[in-house]
Design goal:
Six copies of one chain form a homohexamer. The first copy, chain A, has 226 residues and is α/β, with parallel strands linked by helices. The first copy, chain A, has helices at residues 12-26, 47-64, 81-87, 95-106, 120-129, 153-166, 180-190, 197-211, and strands spanning 2-7, 31-36, 70-73, 92-94, 110-114, 136-141, 171-174, 194-195. Helices cover 45% and strands 16% of the residues of chain A. The longest helix of chain A has 18 residues, at 47-64. The two termini of chain A are 24 Å apart. At the D-E interface, helix 4 and helix 8 of D face helix 4 and helix 8 of E.
Amino acid sequence: MKILIINPNSDEEMTKVIERNARNFAKGEYEVDCITNETAPAFVTTYNDIAETMPGLKKIIEEKEKYYDAFVIACHSDPNLDLLKELCDKPVVGVGEASLKIASMLGHKFSIIMASDKGIPNKELLVRKYGLISSLASFAVANNGEGFNWQDQDNLILAAKKAIDEDMSEVIVLGCAGMGHVAGRMQEILHVPVLDGVTCALIIAVGLVKAGLSTSKVRRFKSLSK
Amino acid sequence: MKILIINPNSDEEMTKVIERNARNFAKGEYEVDCITNETAPAFVTTYNDIAETMPGLKKIIEEKEKYYDAFVIACHSDPNLDLLKELCDKPVVGVGEASLKIASMLGHKFSIIMASDKGIPNKELLVRKYGLISSLASFAVANNGEGFNWQDQDNLILAAKKAIDEDMSEVIVLGCAGMGHVAGRMQEILHVPVLDGVTCALIIAVGLVKAGLSTSKVRRFKSLSK
Amino acid sequence: MKILIINPNSDEEMTKVIERNARNFAKGEYEVDCITNETAPAFVTTYNDIAETMPGLKKIIEEKEKYYDAFVIACHSDPNLDLLKELCDKPVVGVGEASLKIASMLGHKFSIIMASDKGIPNKELLVRKYGLISSLASFAVANNGEGFNWQDQDNLILAAKKAIDEDMSEVIVLGCAGMGHVAGRMQEILHVPVLDGVTCALIIAVGLVKAGLSTSKVRRFKSLSK
Amino acid sequence: MKILIINPNSDEEMTKVIERNARNFAKGEYEVDCITNETAPAFVTTYNDIAETMPGLKKIIEEKEKYYDAFVIACHSDPNLDLLKELCDKPVVGVGEASLKIASMLGHKFSIIMASDKGIPNKELLVRKYGLISSLASFAVANNGEGFNWQDQDNLILAAKKAIDEDMSEVIVLGCAGMGHVAGRMQEILHVPVLDGVTCALIIAVGLVKAGLSTSKVRRFKSLSK
Amino acid sequence: MKILIINPNSDEEMTKVIERNARNFAKGEYEVDCITNETAPAFVTTYNDIAETMPGLKKIIEEKEKYYDAFVIACHSDPNLDLLKELCDKPVVGVGEASLKIASMLGHKFSIIMASDKGIPNKELLVRKYGLISSLASFAVANNGEGFNWQDQDNLILAAKKAIDEDMSEVIVLGCAGMGHVAGRMQEILHVPVLDGVTCALIIAVGLVKAGLSTSKVRRFKSLSK
Amino acid sequence: MKILIINPNSDEEMTKVIERNARNFAKGEYEVDCITNETAPAFVTTYNDIAETMPGLKKIIEEKEKYYDAFVIACHSDPNLDLLKELCDKPVVGVGEASLKIASMLGHKFSIIMASDKGIPNKELLVRKYGLISSLASFAVANNGEGFNWQDQDNLILAAKKAIDEDMSEVIVLGCAGMGHVAGRMQEILHVPVLDGVTCALIIAVGLVKAGLSTSKVRRFKSLSK
């Protein structure tokens, strides 16, 4: 089995981190490659960023569909996910959707760690679209300053701890792809499940391939151009 | 005041119809132009169609922002509306959003006339996103056949009548832009309000300009690239 | 075109302010008159106040229906709005409904400026009735003391600022009619849209008249006495 | 203990039926009187009817508050119930609210028997306001014709049976006050609970008096005129 | 009429308190007995506690069904209530369901007094199941420490007062059965309705018996083993 | 890795079918055993059936926790799932929850194939509890007669086809565990994803083990007895 993880942004470093984490998780049971969306911006924050990921994502899916068994879209805002599910006959799994739905099975409410409050409205719309608004404890903004750094684990842990203690959160979801190496340590410190989206999406993607399942093509995701 | 109506698809004929209807509605009190999104497909049905409207819509907004006071996106599925609100400092009004919100002020429940059932899931997500799901009586599919034609008024009227009689609908929303000329006649026959989206969007757009209102740029629609 | 704005309370001063603001907004493009509901109390806060506005509102609508093209009910709690929509064949627009629905088009969430917390429960029911509860950021109570004064702009601005910064609000709705002159200055200071209900209701009312639209009379608002 | 049942309409015959049913139910354990709202219309269907019940309901509550321990508003659309709860320090129980909330304890979903479809939109708003929309199986319209007659039990039973068999209803709520004598026979035939609103409201009203409970006066129902 | 109150836990002292309160409330108009669920744990907090109440509750209902007219399950988390409604042909009323539904008739929002935050998630699910989430102001945790004591009235009153002042609560629901003697004093101090669940359940249970109503056996609560 | 699938009912035949399907799916990559809940009834339909599965499920979890890495509860009504998540420190996955959440990722709406309408109310509560009510197209009752047989594939296919064509369903969920062998053939005929719950639960369970994730023990599922 071969899974392609698509990093919707153009940050090559992040692609490498995601690929390494994913291969660690896969343990050689299936092949995993991670590809950068070179024509996209380096970060995905705004609607414009989401729009700019589109041409590259579409191109990658179209070119790679026949070489892989399933695809993971490795950005927690699930950019263009509906489009990619429509374009592709094989499973396409969003990091946001997979992690939020698995989070809702592990505890009463989850909090999503965010890099800034700019992304909260759109993330809330996503949670609502997935039917999980009553499972949302809070958005835990790790840092509002410009110099925020996803590598700054102390800040992440502080924000998560506050969510657990004050917002009644029981599960932490990392609101950015490619943090798989951090999740483990955070979980040890916080004593609650800490979910990395790419891991969650791999669980679903690999499972769907094994089960012979894919996106329904009967109506919403039916492609008229194929 | 100058309003630019953007037809997200590339159907020049529809652009002309929309422009004529809009100018009839404007009665010379403000200028209205209608522009075709030339790089887009001729119809907007699938997520891929929506994606293909994006580059052209973005380009038009960016080029025309300084020449017009407000913009109307003339497709009832509000393609890329969040993006365009973010990109533009002036009011951008979607035909879907405007017509559904006005419809909810005129009666208990509305039905949306649809050309086929392919578009229902995405339209339902839109209604839900706008908070209006409890005001939705039904989707009235005018025709499922390939040969459907928005000019076929008898079919539209039949579908609308069924919605009023059987689905408890009180207001009819035309689920496609550029039908302003039909709304009047349908209303006479059906004795309930029949809403053309472009007309509704013009009401809001012109009103916002006069009131000095536009999209809030404080968080969700804040553009980081400007 | 002639629009009648009905001030549901008996405060003549407020009527004059509303009329002046409305005429400024209309810029002579249509006629606007504002009438006081003389048999009502001076403020509308309680359910009893709402009840006491009823006989006068009904009388005004019945007497004036033939002389005007549309009616605006200029109190943000939309007192007796369902009744007036039923009684009248011409458009009747509530200041609350119009401002909340337009607010939801301009940003992710809105806050409503309130004079006291007594009115919050009923306002929440209104927001819920209009399907907009997920667009509500907060009720921003400008002042709980007895000496509250809608002219006290500093207090309004402070309450609005807190809503934007702490409650994630993106749009401010003035929860009282007749503040049109304040909205502009607040908007300049706050850098988010500040909505005056009467302005919003005029946008809708004028638009409906131009489009030949009015309340559906097919079921919910069908009058059996006409 | 003395309970006053207020018939919001002016139909003396209905008042007598309600009083007789209520006294049969009370079995002399407490006193029950039923009073007619003489200035109201004979039926309560439209928003105008509801408005016309207001002055009389208010007058009755104000005059009788000191002589009775609790009040039942005997019309299933709960006309002016919020107002009466605000005006009165003693318990005021609506026939609609009491019957719907009790119905939701007795089965998965209930259907409401209606005399015509004109009242469905407003009844739906009521069910929604009471938080019970997910417990609503259907509105069972007993008869749409003009000659409908609540005495026509066969028609009621037919409509209820259809609701149970086709709409998955498990409990029947009679959508009109004063049918207490019919509920028993319907229940025998249908083998599901059939709820008479006045009976349900008496259960709540008598219970509240015994428990020393009444409407909270802290905010929503606080009267500023007392 | 004979009502059996079942204390789902094995705390004999609580059973005695509940029985005494209930008989005080009944004033001899009907018989009330209270029985202890001897095989259950002394407190009901966890899902395991709820499970351990099950065999005893089932046995009591099966043995006592023929001797009593209705049953009250005297624990505010309504343990196994659906099961007991299914098993029994006579009315079975949960203290949680009855108190929350009556609370929603007496004010805009209620707060539930809780002994610890461990029980909040499950209580929230209950409120949601009963359709009352929009009537929930807050969970007011009286004490998180191990030494919490329901007899510690000062703590209860403090928690309730905070809920009224800060969470916009208008009605207080005691989240534990057998506090009937406290409710009265709290109500005097707080000036809002304070609801004891057993009292509320008795109101409903006695009323259902008098009205000849019981659980619908048509589908959800149909017992296949009888 | 070792997964234990627990068949909550006492039907040994079904246990064998489930085990065979599961091992086929596992392909030897991990060990799967399936155990029968011997003290339970042969079918799980009523609340009483669910209660009777409890002691055995609890005993199995307690005895087997140390020998397995994760547990699957193989009944589509997720009997006692909250309890088992609380009791066990290792992942416990319900067949209902896993299949419904995965279904919601594969299409707009799903239908659940049911053996009779008796189980619909409780299944609806489950869907609502999981936040997926807006993804539910319909319950497709395959057969209401007594002689229903899950082996009767023609009936299943007919019911599913009707759901796709008439209820706008896009994904089929088999509402009973142990049908893994049928899903494949149904999918071929229906051309939409057909989900077997056990397969879905295995996907999640195996994934959680690999990712080092399990139920959050911070509040809702915290066991006080361990």
